[in-house]
Amino acid sequence: MVAVSDRRGFKELFGQEKIQRFAVPVLLGIISLLMAILIYVFVFYKPLSKGISEVLPDGRLAMPRFASFRSEEVNVRIGPGTQYPIAWVYKRLSLPVEITAEFDTWRRIKDFEGNEGWVNKGMLSSKRHVIITSKSANLYSNPDRNSSLKAILQEGVVAQITEIQEPWCHIRISGLKGWIMIHEAWGIFHQGDKKK
């Protein structure tokens, strides 16, 4: 077998003028493509591994925010999708949760004890509720500690929020309506809170 080689270089084969005419547009094209990729990455790209955004450009609600369970039984998964295993099941209608992230139709939630997981948005309601976190909370007829006492709510009671007047919250539970101090419940951001 005989090896044949043309020892002429690229310049000798194509000529200096052809190389310059060819190289400038190719170089400009490569630079334009790289600029377009950089613009896309900085403006539009959302990492798939993260898939989460604090404030979305399409006007969806900002996070964190509160919601409550729409169902008496809610599966909490370790990731945002049915392919992820169920970590635990809540069995509490209207339990307030804090939505800390979104991915597609999934919401990462945190409960009053700090437990976190993912639930489908169909399991959540925008109706706001609180859970009493102090040992007991007095339910007053007006937002004033000197008003008449209507009931004493025990720790773990869940009630619907109807109005907020810092530092008070008007709630409704089992036919009772009245005011509690916000600091006795979980499910409300108030002036002392810092959204994380």
Question: Strands, helices and their partners?
Answer:
Elements: H1 10-14, H2 16-43, E1 65-69, E2 74-77, E3 86-90, E4 96-103, E5 106-110, E6 116-120, E7 124-125, E8 129-132, E9 136-140, E10 149-154, E11 158-165, E12 168-173, E13 176-181, E14 185-186
Antiparallel strand pairs: 1-4, 1-7, 2-3, 4-5, 5-6, 8-11, 8-14, 9-10, 11-12, 12-13
Written overview of the protein:
By secondary structure, the protein is an alpha+beta fold. It is built from two helices and 14 strands, in the order ααββββββββββββββ. Among the domains are: about 65-125, SH3 Domains (SH3 type barrels), CATH 2.30.30; about 130-185, SH3 Domains (SH3 type barrels), CATH 2.30.30.40. The protein has a five-stranded antiparallel β-sheet with strand order 6-5-4-1-7, with no helix packed on it. The chain has a five-stranded antiparallel β-sheet with strand order 13-12-11-8-14, with no helix packed on it.
